[in-house]
Structure formats: C-alpha cells, structure tokens
Design brief:
Length: about 325
C-alpha cells in the first residue's frame, strides 16, 4: 500500500518523504515543481510531475499504485502573494485541493493528512493559541487553508473520509539531506543566514514597538524533522481508526526576531547586520501554539525544539548548499 504525498518536492514534503521511506513506507510523490525541486527527492522515489487538480493524472496514480492515504502539502504558501493574487490562491489551494480530495475519495482513499496553518486563526485573541481558538484568517492564503479544513469535515460527514489537519506554526531548520530553498525566500531564518553568508547586506526587522519584552514579534519555531514526524504519527492515528482531528504543531515556546538574530550570530560566528523597519500590515505580535493536543492525541514530542539546534541544522545545510538545490 502506498502513501501519496502531494508537494513532496517542497521543503516540508521532502523531509517527510524521507521519514516515511526510512520507516519502510511506499511513497508516491505528485508535485508540479512550481515551487519544489526534483533534486529534493531521491532518484528512486516514484514521481509524477503534475497538478493536484488534474483528475485524470490523480486517477492514473490511483490505478498504478495501491494508494491507502494521502499527505497533502501541495499549496501556494506566501501570505503577501495571496493578498495580491487571491484568484490564483483560491484556484490552486482550494479548487485543486477539492478536486484532489474528491478524486481520492471517489477512488476509495479514506485517510488524509493536511498541511494547515496557524494563519487560519487570524489575529489571536489569546496566546498561546489552542485549537479551539476562533478562526478568522486575515488573508486569502489563510482562508484557502480554512476552506479546505471545512471541505474535509464535509467529506468526513458524507463519505467517511478520516483526516488530520495539522496547523503548523513556523517550520524551520534542515536535515542532513534537505533544507529550505524557496524562491523568492520570505522566511526569516534562511534570510538571516544569507546575511551571515554575505549574500545580503542586512536583515530587516519589521516592527520593534510590539508589546513584547524586546519590542519585536514572537513566533513559535518548529524543526522540520519534528513536523515531518507528526505526519508519520498522524497516519498511524488514522490507521488505528482514530477520529478526524485539527491539531496545532508548535513547541509552545516563542522566540523574538531579535533573539533569533542573536542566536544566529552565536551559531554562525558571523556578523549579521539588522535594520529596524516599520511593522508589516497583518503581522500579529505573538504567535505561539498550545501544543498539548499533538502530544495527547498523536504521542508527538518535539525533539529538536531548541532554537540554537534549529539554527545549527539550517546553517549546516546552508554552508553545504549555499545556492540551495540546483533545480
Ligand atoms: N513553511 C511553513 O512554515 C509553513 C507553515 C504553515 C503551513 N505550511 C504549509 O505546509 C505546506 C508545505 O510548505 P512548504 O514550506 O514545504 O512549501 P513549498 O512551497 O516548499 O512546498 C509546496 C510544494 O507544493 C507544490 N505545489 C503547489 N501547488 C501545487 C499543485 N497545485 N499541484 C502540485 N504541486 C503543487 C510546489 O511545487 C512545492 O513543491 C504548504 O501547504 C504550506 O501552506 C507551511
């Protein structure tokens, strides 16, 4: 029996593919390579280049492999881009996501793990944020993930699709083989490390007047291996007949932007110039998860949650791959 991993050539997907294969799972990857890298996958991984919304292609994958479950990473994932191009985000993330779910369920696949996000909560009313927090996203990206969550609930009610929607906080770090290479890069850690490498003059700190101890925004950084492991455990939960769930994935600890830059200076031993700039619209002061449910329901425990470890692994990968993946 195989697991279909959509978006498996992307950052979190490629790490999860490795973890699944290390555990002897048969994996099939579907990715259109719009944002991913073929070289982020071992050459012997069965790979289909195409889109999640291509019903004929997904149908072919179901005929050629005995797909038991799907882990659905494939999405466009830039908040700013989604504000400027809402139609593209709704078409790709919601329209194609719905076509994928419908085709899979029609083909008898009844287990689904979904990459959701803390962006579905919008401006937090309480921090740390529990799964029961109201959801009112602040941008089309967050809404597109919110909509897939609702679609999954409806497919569960109508057709018995069992799912785990994992609401990630900030994915970070690298494994020995895989790291973060987005184009354009918008994530803080790779940008900070580019400054350490001398590839950027400075890192912009957006907002230094937040109601936080040092005035900069606080985020919950979670190592990509820990994230990947949660998907393995979510599949195990569904295989045991577990109920559909919405689960936060964060460490429960927040770090400020300045704290992160300072830790990066000490891990890399390099100078990292920082420049304070104004707040960005829609950036909350603190985003930190209540992570108790992941521990309770999945037995998940972040092992590499320490910020210095996260930065060390990202730095090691950056030094080995200063230009990222070749493709
Ligand atoms: N990186 C984070 O901190 C973070 C936080 C919360 C949620 N997420 C979610 O996790 C998932 C993975 O994030 P990532 O950082 O690895 O992103 P990524 O861009 O590296 O990976 C996404 C992959 O999906 C592929 N893809 C996109 N649309 C597709 C389509 N219609 N058909 C086929 N392939 C398609 C891209 O080519 C890419 O390889 C995304 O769904 C994202 O929204 C990420």
């Amino acid at each position: 029996m195989a697991i279909l991993v959509t978006g498996g050539a992307g950052y979190i997907g490629s790490v999860t593919v490795d973890l699944l294969r290390e555990r002897g799972e048969e994996v099939v990857v579907l990715d259109d390579l719009a944002r991913g890298h073929r070289s982020a996958l071992d050459a012997d991984v069965p790979f289909y280049s195409g889109r999640t919304g291509d019903r004929a292609l997904v149908g072919r994958i179901l005929r050629e492999h005995k797909v038991e479950a799907c882990v659905h990473f494939a999405a466009l994932a830039y908040v700013g881009e989604s504000v400027n191009e809402p139609a593209r985000y709704y078409a790709n993330n919601v329209g194609e996501g719905l076509a994928l779910i419908d085709t899979l369920v029609g083909g008898g696949v009844k287990r689904f793990v979904f990459s959701s996000t803390c962006a579905t909560y919008g401006e937090p009313k309480e921090v740390p944020i529990p799964e029961t927090h109201p959801q009112w996203p602040k941008n089309p990206y967050g809404w597109s993930k919110f909509m897939i969550e609702r679609i999954l609930e409806d497919f569960d009610a109508a057709q018995g699709l069992k799912f785990v929607a994992l609401r990630y906080f900030n994915a970070a770090g690298a494994t020995a083989k895989r790291g973060e290479h987005h184009e354009p890069e918008t994530h803080l850690i790779p940008l900070v490390l580019d400054v350490a490498l001398g590839r950027r003059s400075h890192i912009s700190v957006f907002g230094s007047d937040y109601p936080t101890p040092d005035g900069t925004a606080i985020r919950d950084y979670i190592h990509v291996s820990d994230l990947g492991l949660a998907h393995v455990q979510a599949l195990a939960h569904l295989r045991k007949g577990g109920a559909s769930e919405f689960i936060n994935l964060g460490t429960g600890h927040g770090h400020s932007v300045l704290e992160l830059i300072e830790t990066a200076r000490s891990v890399t031993g390099r100078k990292i110039a920082a420049r304070k700039e104004g707040r960005r619209a829609g950036d909350p002061a603190r985003l930190v998860a209540v992570s108790e449910k992941a521990r309770r329901v999945l037995g998940w425990e972040p092992k590499l949650g320490d910020l210095a470890t996260i930065l060390r692994t990202a730095w090691d990968w950056k030094l080995a791959h200063p230009d990222g993946y070749p493709d």
